[in-house]
Amino acid sequence: MIPLVRPPRLAPGARVAVVAPSGPVVEERLAAGLDLLRGWGLDPVVAPHVLDRHPDFPYLAGTDADRAADFQAAWCDPDVTAVLCARGGYGAQRMMDLLDWDALRAAGPKVLVGYSDITALHEAFAVRLGLVTLHGPMVSALDFLKNSRAQEHLRATLLEPESVMAIRAVGAGTALVPGRARGVTLGGCLSLLAAGLDTPHARSGARGGLLMIEDIGEEAYRLDRLLTQLLRSGRLDGIAGIALGSFKDCGSYELLRRVLVDRLRGLGVPVVEEFGFGHGDGAPTVPLGVRAELDADAGTLTLEEPALA
Fold it and tell me: Chunked in runs of 10, what are the mean pLDDT values of the chain (309 residues)?
C-alpha cells in the first residue's frame, strides 16, 4: 500500500455539500448539523434529495438514481470543496455503479467525510480515485450533534489538520497485542469491508496497511464470521497493524474481546483495542490513505503528515 493523494484543507467560507447516499435523514437533526457547520465559518449546501424517502424501501433516503445524482452533482460542482454525508444506515453500495467515476476523477481532489455505510465509498474512492478520505462524524448523527469532542476533532481535521496529527484513543486504548507498526491507514465498518470483498470498488489486499475497524449491532458470532471471512479471503495477508474502534451494541465486550484475540492474534502484528473511532461517543476523525505509526501500547495513531494538504 502507498499513501493516497491528500485533498486540500478547507478555509473559512468554503462551500461544503451535504448528501445522503444511504439511509433516511431526520430534518431537525440535519438543521442542527448545518448550524454547527455555519458556526465553523463554512457554507453548507444541501443536495436536493437529502430528505427524500424511497417509495418502496423505507430504509433508503430516496431512490438509488436520485442519491447517486445528488452525490455526482455535489462532487462535480467546482464551487464545492468537500462532500459531507448526512448519515449512514444502508444504501451506498446500491448506487455505486450509477456514479460516473471518470467525471468524479476529473473533478479533482476534494474532501469526503462519513463512516458506517460510507465505508463502501471510502474503499471506492481509494481504489477508483486514489484519494485520502475522512472516517468521521456525519452531519445529522446524534453523536456529532451532542458531543463537542467529536465536533472539535472534525473541525480541526478539516481546517487545521496539522493540529491533530497525533490521534489518541478516546476509549481505554489498550494493547490486545503489544508493539508498534507503520503503514497506510485503511478500513472502516467491518461488515461493509466484508460485504465489499471481490467487488470492483474495493481493495483486493491490505499488505503494509494499518487496518482501522469498528462496527455496531453485531453479535459476537457474526463478528467472528466477518473476521474469519476477511482472513480466509487473504484480505489481511501482510497487514502491518490493527486498531479496533467502537463496537457499540455488540453484546458482552468480554466475549467480543475473546473473539478478537482468537481471530487477530495469529496475525502477529500490533493490535490496539477500544480506540473509540466509529459509532462510539466522541469518536475522533481518522484519515484513510495516509502513512502513520500505530503504537498499541500507548493507544496512539500518529500521522506522518497532515490528513489534508
Answer: 95 98 97 98 98 97 98 98 97 97 97 98 97 97 94 98 97 95 98 95 92 97 98 96 97 96 97 96 96 98 98
Residue burial 195-221, b: 16+ Cβ < 10 Å; e: rest? bbeeeebbbeebbbbbbbbbbbebebe
CA 76-81-85 angle, 5° bins: 80
CB 44 within 8 A of CB 37: yes
User: Is the full-model pTM beyond 0.85?
Assistant: yes
Torsions phi, psi of 216, nearest 5?
-145, 140
Which of the residues 116, 140, 191, 246 is marked catalytic? 116
Closest by CA position to 120, among listed 49, 201, 56: 201
Q: Are 19 and 71 in contact (CB under 8 A)?
A: yes
Contact of 227 with 258, CB cutoff 8 Å: no
Other C-beta atoms lying within 10 Å of the C-beta of residue 189? 26
Verify whether residue 214 is a known catalytic residue: yes
Instruction: Please state, in angstroms and rounded to a whole number, the distance separating the CA atoms of residues 14 and 41.
Output: 8
- 279: annotated active-site residue: yes
